[in-house]
Design goal:
This protein is an alpha+beta fold. Among the domains are: about 5-180, Hypothetical protein af1432 (Orthogonal Bundle), CATH 1.10.3210.10; about 240-310, Growth Hormone, Chain: A, CATH 1.20.1250. It is about 50% helix and about 10% strand. The chain is built from 22 helices and 9 strands. The chain has a 4-stranded mixed sheet. The longest helix is centred in the middle third of the chain and has 22 residues, at about 230-250. The N and C termini lie far apart (about 65 Å).
Length: about 425
């Protein structure tokens, strides 16, 4: 008897279809359900009220994009073995299974990366995810882990999960744009799916779809500067990071029971395992912050109140890196105002590569670029060789934005503002 089709209603894809019982079983594991309690955009909801969507919704979306791409390949005569299909589906669905609460803020405090945790959770014999995967074959958890870790020899499967034009990026850009309400992050996703082809064990786009791909890459560029690097979004993340750093400092100074939650205490102390990591989500971290509002440590209590009540630090754009003398002067101003500069004076430097284009100096070969396929000649051409906007993006010197974040009481104090504005531009 054929398995009944499962359907999720989704604001990005309309419907997300699940036909394989394996995927349905993975969705219903406790590790996947945990992702419902982790926001996709961390603290960005404090800037964009609609940005409340979860890592769970995004993970389903990545699976759906990969499902659509493979279905497109199969309809158009590109062979796709059933075992490869299952592997790609599972890796796409589980790629964020190891995400920490509040996006990347906790990762920076714990000095860890969610990709490594995703692999560890998949390989850990006591997780439900591992057990569901192992029911397929004893080595299947390791294969899924290898795809996520980019070690799997089938590069086409890896590229569906992690590449210039992968299911992850295609979903999160559209989803984040839809949920935050910004228009510049949108692109023609259905057409992207239609122009993709598997060639030479890599995912490439038809030459006829060049402008559609350009629109996607430009959408990614604008989303970084207008959403992910938005100064107020960064202000909330800076505040959260400083709050967690203070909590970790207190724990490592001897306050082992800093929160009501033993798993969080062990995370902050540095001695934790998979079970502790999985026990911590956004709701638990928020509950801890609520408890810290009345903590005897004034810094931890104040930072917790500021985040919960959205009293975010103010920012000033830095024209250039502050000299040590000038930074020391700002630190002295913050300290004079009664704040500990270690937690109330933060220089935040951000920048990214919007198109990962690597040109070999000796060989002239391209690395992780995005290639266009000419159906007539069969030639593959890297995007920046034929697209003016992408060439400009690829050759652009890495753009850096530097901001300094200070408490509102410091930034708005007229006695201090004159001296601050000698060095930094609001």
């Amino acid at each position: 008897m054929r398995e009944q089709e499962k359907v999720f209603k989704d604001p990005v894809h309309g419907y997300i279809y699940v036909h394989d019982p394996l995927i349905w079983d993975l969705i219903n594991t406790r590790e996947m359900q945990r992702l419902r309690r982790i926001r996709q955009l961390g603290t960005a909801y404090l800037t964009y009220p609609g940005g409340e969507h979860s890592r769970f919704a995004h993970s389903l979306g990545v699976y759906e994009v990969i499902r659509q791409v493979i279905s497109h390949f199969e309809r158009n005569g590109y062979g796709w073995p059933a075992e490869d299909r299952r592997l790609a589906y599972a890796a796409g669905l589980l790629h964020d299974i190891g995400h920490a609460p509040f996006s990347h803020a906790l990762e920076s405090v714990l000095l860890t990366q969610h990709e490594q945790w995703s692999e560890q959770i998949i390989r850990h014999p006591e997780t439900e995810v591992h057990q569901v995967l192992a029911d397929v074959a004893p080595d299947f958890p390791a294969l899924v882990s290898d795809v996520i870790g980019k070690r799997y020899p089938g590069r086409i499967i890896v590229s569906l999960v992690s590449s210039q034009l992968d299911g992850d990026r295609l979903d999160y850009l559209m989803r984040d744009a839809v949920m935050t309400g910004v228009d510049y992050g949108r692109f023609d996703l259905p057409r992207i799916v239609r122009i993709l082809v598997p060639k030479h064990d890599r995912l490439v786009a038809r030459q006829s779809g060049q402008h559609t791909v350009e629109a996607y890459l430009l959408a990614r560029y604008f989303m970084y500067w207008q959403v992910y690097f938005h100064p107020v979004c960064r202000a909330a993340e800076v505040l959260l990071r400083n709050l967690l750093e203070r909590a970790k400092h207190l724990v490592r100074c001897g306050e082992r029971e800093i929160s009501p939650f033993s798993a969080l205490n062990r995370l902050l102390a540095g001695g934790y395992g998979v079970a502790d990591y999985l026990a911590v989500d956004d709701s638990l971290l928020l509950a801890a912050m609520h408890s810290w509002r009345d903590h005897p440590d004034g810094v931890l209590a104040d930072l917790s109140r500021r985040l919960i009540d959205r009293h975010l630090p103010k920012y000033f754009e830095l024209q250039a890196p502050l000299s040590q003398d000038r930074l020391s002067a700002v630190v002295d101003l913050v300290r004079t105002a009664g704040f500990d500069p270690a937690y109330y004076c933060t220089v935040d430097e951000i920048g990214t590569v919007y198109y990962d284009y690597y040109l070999g100096a000796q060989t002239g070969t391209h690395g992780d670029g995005l290639f266009l396929w000419d159906e007539t000649s069969g030639a593959l051409t890297e995007m920046s060789q034929v697209s003016e906007p992408i060439r400009a993006m690829a050759q652009e010197t890495k753009r850096k934005v530097r901001r300094i974040y200070l408490p509102e009481e410091v930034a708005g104090d007229p006695r201090l503002s004159l001296q601050l504005n000698r060095w930094i531009r609001p």
